[in-house]
Task: structure prediction
Amino acid sequence: MKIEPSLLSADFADIRAQIELVERAGVDGLHIDVMDGHFVPNITWGQKVTKDLRKLTKLTFDVHLMIEEPERYVAEFAQAGADIISVHWEATVHANRLVTNIKELGVRAGLAINPATSLSELDQILPYIDILVVMSVNPGFGGQPYVPTSTEKVRAARALIDGRGLDIEIEVDGGVTLDNIADVARAGTDIAVMGAGIFATPDPAATIVRARSLCAG
Ligand code: DX5
Ligand code: ZN
Result:
């Protein structure tokens, strides 16, 4: 299972050192949460910060757009250096066109679903996506508690994807910590996002090493 620190919980006053720290600890990519204050009740950063962060590392940039009208911005985030762009099912009425557009930009397409969104709504879009992002918190903030029903949702998503022979990675985003990461891994997760679960611990590098060992079991 891949581990991606979410920069939402990083110290941006020391962001170069924070990225170097997690990169040295062997993470598989960086999760970059973009929030517009409309789709979610919080605001983070946009294309310019993403482009500047791109200069600091070669790690995979997994950009999570928690914004309204994502159609307007995917090209700019691709140009800013995103390797993955995940958009919310709940933020567009044209998911097929949007996902196709992201892939035409040469970027892997993720589709994120909120805790209250059922997998059954995705029947027609699944064949078009590269990554299914199962939100295990209500989006907008780091450090929130894991929504317990997410584990069963991941298990069901794994069975659905494998049953249809689709090549989709499952990403779990929100509330993942050392306390639940083994369950998250066992449920069939391919990518675990960890924000506070890494950056709010006394020794983030040791936390990453520990998280790896908990998933290996
Ligand atoms: C929440 C974001 C998540 C969040 C994860 O809206 O999409 O990526 O930053 O952070 P933790 O692991 O602290 O919940
Ligand atoms: Zn996220």
User: Anything to note?
Assistant: The chain has one domain: 2-216.
